[in-house]
Design brief:
It is a single chain. It is built from 14 helices and 10 strands. The protein has helices spanning about 20-25, 40-50, 65-70, 95-100, 180-190, 195-205, 210-220, 230-245, 250-260, 270-280, 285-295, 315-325, 330-340, 345-360, and strands at about 5-10, 30-35, 50-55, 80-85, 90, 105-115, 125-135, 140, 145-150, 155-170. The strands form 2 sheets. An 8-stranded mixed beta sheet has the order 3-2-1-4-7-6-10-5, with helices on both faces. The longest helix is centred in the last third of the chain and has 18 residues, at about 345-360. It is globular and about 80 Å long. The model has no long low-confidence stretch (mean pLDDT about 95).
């Protein structure tokens, strides 16, 4: 088994990321990029670096079609295919780990993926991604939020290699306006696909189309294939958010409670209920849900996992709840946790206030 690795990608106007990307993927035996119509010098730069590069412009763009076309550039003696977007980059040593652990029957690899980073440089959303696969065994499907779908009648043996780290630092100015029509097309093509129905409902929420979002997310929950509790919980939380945007707090609370019943093993529903009651100035109830949230110690590596639940903000909220309830010792203890995670001036000032109030109470 030759274990030759080919990194492949699609690109359009990614000149600012090309060198960073190339530096991280050049451990591969081959590198291939299909340029889909760059006008900023990306195509020329890729060729200059010696990358196997072709350009193809699409009248109607779909991510699955473009990625399948990019796979046609992969040399035939490639064993392992690695799909890495140009705004992503590996930590050093990934190819060695991959070759050492790849077996003859391996078809797919899951690896650690940091989808975004916070302003302070710490990780945001982290999950196990799976865009490393055996050559000739998969095709890409769905116009957007595309996925690798097996095209062979063999068991898909997947191995986890969390020591392989891929990072994503995107261009925040780049438009994603085509996501909504592509998601609508995807759901039209396959209305029973629970994953993209969920994504479409979320996208409607992002676009402020709250009634459509609620309808679509309820559709997701009704599908027979909608069985992953974390994603069902997310749909219920997004429905609740939409009701919140529509100033319907009764339904907002109802759907957050349903979200909690769906997945009480993750922090997100507890957090959103805590915030809801905080905003209603029901500090006792808010504190109860934040404290229940903190009992969950293990963070699942899933795109559903919201990094806010693991940062300073929940402790910040809870400290203010304790302050409002006159429990200054608890307020000080809790805000100290927040400060450990975020040495923010406002938090430091709050701690001074809590200490002052405690001293006044004791004198």
């Amino acid at each position: 088994m030759n274990k030759k690795i080919c990194v492949y990608a699609i690109a359009k106007n990614e000149i600012k990321f090309v060198e960073r990307w190339y530096s991280s993927v050049k451990e591969a035996d081959y590198i291939c990029v299909l340029d889909t119509g760059s006008t900023d010098g990306t195509f020329e730069k890729l060729k200059e670096l010696g990358i196997i590069t072709e350009q193809k412009k699409y009248d109607t763009f779909r991510f699955d079609v473009a990625r399948n076309d990019s796979m046609s550039l992969i040399p035939t003696d490639t064993e392992i295919c690695v799909c890495v977007d140009i705004d992503e980059f590996f930590d050093v040593g990934w190819s060695k780990i991959l070759k050492e652990n790849w077996k003859e029957d391996t078809k797919r690899v899951r690896y650690r993926y940091t989808w975004n980073f916070k302003e302070d440089g710490s990780e945001g959303v982290v999950f196990m991604s799976d865009k490393i696969h055996k050559n000739g065994c998969f095709k890409w499907t769905h116009p957007v939020h595309e996925t690798l779908t097996p095209c062979i009648n063999q068991p898909i043996i997947t191995i986890d290699l969390p020591n392989i780290q891929l990072n994503h630092k995107a261009d925040p100015t780049k438009s994603r306006s085509n996501y909504l029509p592509l998601l609508e097309l995807s759901v039209k093509e396959n209305p029973e696909d629970d994953r993209n129905v969920h994504y479409l409902g979320r996208e409607y929420m992002f676009h402020g189309q709250y009634e459509k979002a609620i309808e679509t997310l309820k559709c997701h929950l009704s599908l027979k294939t909608s069985t992953w509790k974390d994603e069902r919980c997310a749909s219920l939380r997004y429905i609740a958010r939409c009701y919140g945007y529509l100033k319907d707090e009764e339904n907002q609370e109802k759907y957050l409670m349903l979200a909690l019943l769906e997945a009480d093993h993750i922090r997100e529903p507890y957090y959103e209920l805590g915030v809801l009651y905080y905003n209603q100035k029901n500090y006792l109830k808010s504190a109860t849900f934040f404290n229940e949230m903190f009992k969950i110690k293990d963070r699942y590596l899933s795109y559903i996992s919201d990094p806010v639940c693991w940062g300073s903000l929940p402790y910040d909220y809870l400290s203010i709840c304790y302050y409002e309830l006159g429990k200054y010792d608890e307020a000080i203890k809790t805000i100290n946790h927040a400060i450990l995670l975020n040495n923010d001036l406002r938090l430091l000032q709050n701690r001074e206030l809590f200490i002052k109030m405690k001293n006044q109470k004791n004198n």
